[in-house]
Amino acid sequence: MISLRRFFRLSVIAAFLAIPACKAPTIADDPGMDESVVPGDDFFAYANGGWFKTTAIPPDKSSFGVFAMMADDTRRKTVALIQDAAKDTGGNEDMRKIGDFYSSFMDEAAIESKGVAPLQEQFDEIARIGDKRALSRVIGSRLRADVDPLNSTNFQTDNLIGVWIAQGLTDPSHNTPYLLQGGLGLPDRDDYVSDDPHMAGLRTQYRTHIEAMLKLAGVSEPAARAARIFGLETKMAKTHATRVESADVHNAGPWKREELATKAPGLDWPALLEAASLKDSPAFIIWHPKALAGLSALAASEPIDVWKDWLTLHTIEQAAGFLPKAFVDESFMFYGKALNGTPQLRERWQRGTDYTSGALGELVGKIYVARHFPAETKTKVKAMTDDLLKAFANRIDSLTWMSPETKARAKAKVAAMRIGVGYPDRWKDYSALEIVKGDALGNIRRAELFYYRQQLAKLRQPVDRDEWWMTPQTVNAVNLPLQNALNFPAAILQPPFFDANMDAAHNYGSMGAIIGHEISHSFDDQGSQFDADGRIANWWTTEDLDHFKSAGAALAVQYDKYRPFPDLAVHGRQTLSENIADLAGLAAAYDAFHLSLQGRSAGDRQFFISYAQSWRQKIREAALRNQITSDGHAPDEYRAATVRNLDAWYTAFDVKPGQKMYLDPKDRVRVW
Questions:
Q1: How far is residue 428's CA from residue 455's CA, in Å, rounded to a whole number?
Q2: Residues 90-100, buried b or exposed e (16+ Cβ, 10 A)?
Q3: How many structural domains is the chain composed of?
Q4: Confidence band, pLDDT 50/70/90 cuts, at residue 152
Q5: In this predicted model, which residue has the larger pLDDT, 511 or 320?
Q6: What is the pLDDT of residue 7?
Q7: What is the DSSP letter of 427?
Q8: What burial class does residue 415 get, using C-beta atoms within 10 Å of its C-beta: 0-12 exposed, 13-18 middle, 19+ buried?
Q9: What confidence tens digit (pLDDT) does each residue in 474-496 have?
């Protein structure tokens, strides 16, 4: 979903590329390292300490590192393409849409002159709400296609309810709608209910922010309305599933359409579904049953006027990036500065590039690929992904604790994986999307509706297991358990993660580890519950599953001990899926690296250094606290510490008992 507010919360992860050995780097010449640090005491500082001493986080960022540098570089390339489109006079309709969307956002004078007038139609619709049926109809009309819950960082949507369309959990041959919890302005339920003093302070700032946004929009009695809105959202939060609960696919379940009214009474479900164009769906998968029932009950128990206030606030919040500067600044002051500690708003061209790239993703992506992703690169990447799959399959064969029956099923899942490299085989058709020059907010709204209708159309179409969920210009990668598929966009397949001038040790340690990471997500505590067809199914023997769960529990305990702040530790269970993928992915990449050498001498030290340097990042305290409480990824420093579970790392750096990162062999976690 193209959520306006979420552009303040962007984060990136990585993917993969590796090539045969080329020029070997000289470790001693790397100024980013700090060789005064003993590797066995703090490997992250050893690999990155020099960079830390000389690098400051830019004022418009909450964190800065390798991923952010790549995102910045990709954004510069993308804006050049967009600006070229804006100048295009050749009559190409796709280029016109790209150029008009961007130029409309960049026309600050026009946006200022309109004030809040673009919101008036929605305000009027809210004002006409007089009963539960009308409330449900407005809520339904604002549903939009949301994120995949299996890949979400916070498992909630900005709207009261989120919708996601994909194949069924037990029926991989048909698409079905999934319903998710939502409605909160803060990132996570714990932000409302925790006794932590830091979160209590954020709640105070959030209430002040609500009041400020209402006041800017000319809403009367902003302080009183802000108090009521915050009270309603607090009640919503208490119904929400925790992040750990959200990650458990077994908490989700199928409901028939008529069961919505009996299992989640309060909302007028027929009115809501009709407004959301979902009235013909015979069944739904409810990702958060308890939350859906709780939110629906609040629709009946809370006064209509409070709901109207809440809808008014979220109408403003969702549009803030396309409103006059006062709204942009206030939104940033809370979501950028208070929540993540970012001192300065990004330049407008950067925001405009991201909005355009998100709204017109594959139109922009097609141009990006033509200019920045040669066909031969895609061929090399496909060949290398095959090598990583082979290494992972070999690791399955070598497991001493797994039965032949479970091994066969695991290898069948590896063999059936669909891997998308660079860009989709079929580009989306944007001819039905209307872009009007000068209508900045209208353009983003129509883009959201266009994407929603595309997703709804899947309910009448065969399942497409080759569907892409990212644009080519996205510095990111994803594992899609229901499709048993991976996407590696073009923008991640470039230096410094893959560098043709570096040797195999660098490329496998950096990119190889992260393609291994994405492969391994199919075998983490969540992905391992899906079979080769993307169907949720138990393909394990009881003994094998018990061993796997035991290894996962041990890894969770290991991460529970990491404490970035005296009052806040990493949550081992919350981050378990990512930590399993890091560990299994690194191990598979190490094996693939040695396979690629074909008997030539190894470069294990560089392999592990490149891995640690791929997690090179500085992050502000507020952003780190926010990540720990609401994100499924451990802080990058501790992701680099994955090396302490691999025997080869100990040999490469002569790590000995007594050093801080040393683990006794019996305490080293081995999952795959």
A1: 12
A2: eeeebbbbbbb
A3: 2
A4: low
A5: 320
A6: 29
A7: P
A8: exposed
A9: 999 999 999 999 999 999 999 99
